[in-house]
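tool=predict chain=A
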Amino acid sequence: MITKILKADEIDVNSTSINEAAEVLKRGGLVAFPTETVYGLGGDATDPDASKKIYAAKGRPSDNPLIVHIADFSQLKAIASNLPDTAKKLADAFWPGPLTMVVNKNEVVPYETTGGLDTVAVRMPSHPVALALIKKSNVMIAAPSANTSGRPSPTKAEHVAEDLNGKIDIILDGGPVEIGLESTIIDLTEDIPMILRPGYINKQMLESVVGQVRIDPAIVVDSDTTVGAKPKAPGMRYKHYAPKGELTVVKGGQDKVIEVINQLTAEHLADGKRVGIIATSQTKDLYLKGEVLVIGDRDNEESIAHNLYDILRRFDYLGVDYIFSECFDTPSIGQAIMNRLLKAAGQKVIEV
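tool=predict ok
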């Protein structure tokens, strides 16, 4: 298969590129497209064969549900069963935007899309290209991240091409994404809504709209209940976001973290290995050796989220064997950043 890479201007949502991609979706093909979070790999959510193609292209476990992307709240009502009032409240507050709601499904969405579950995950993206594609194709789009399963999620079209060139029909290149982390997932099928995946929209923001919100204990960093706990969201059970080099997160006071990373870097370099270091603009000059990449500024946590996956992929280009990262417990989206970073590291943490 030859994969077309087409420029998609968010200002010109009537472009021939978006129209061509919409026709591909109507025919059951696959299109990668930008959202405000990461690039998605889309197919017709109501077509079982299209969903099977998505799983095959990504090498994704078939019990890991796909998120259905819609452009209007009426589409959620069309595929949901027993839709709770909280869904409308959250949609009014956060849609279009980086929030995914899990609700009970009806027969419109096939089990091939929901990973065999009787629930469906749904969100309305805010990126103009994504919304235009949904509207032009007139189909709800099932779309996980547009990468090989387990690899860092794509935040640029070139990331998609690295993983999926020759496996899908079209990549719509809309430039770098805005947020850089996947959407928050909240389960609305229980009496008290539960966060299944942290994201840009945090617990406090959700509680300001619907009252009490729980967090799945299995995804809480530094929680005693995390050990041995099984995440409720199937996708959170798998290793994700991993670079090719072995990633370790070093946690503790800044001076000690820098000292330990410098020591470990020197040891690996002495053994003939290549080492990468994830630093901030505040600490980059304090590392003595290795490939030091700046993820962002500690006073601007959005910059850290935005650059995380791109940094992990850049270390792949550099061919490093080991990667050491500082910890990023920022106030608003720190939980989401650390969730992704720790999964990329396979939970490998050094406490100092």
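The two ends are 50 Å apart (CA to CA). Residues 223-228 have pLDDT under 50 and may be disordered.
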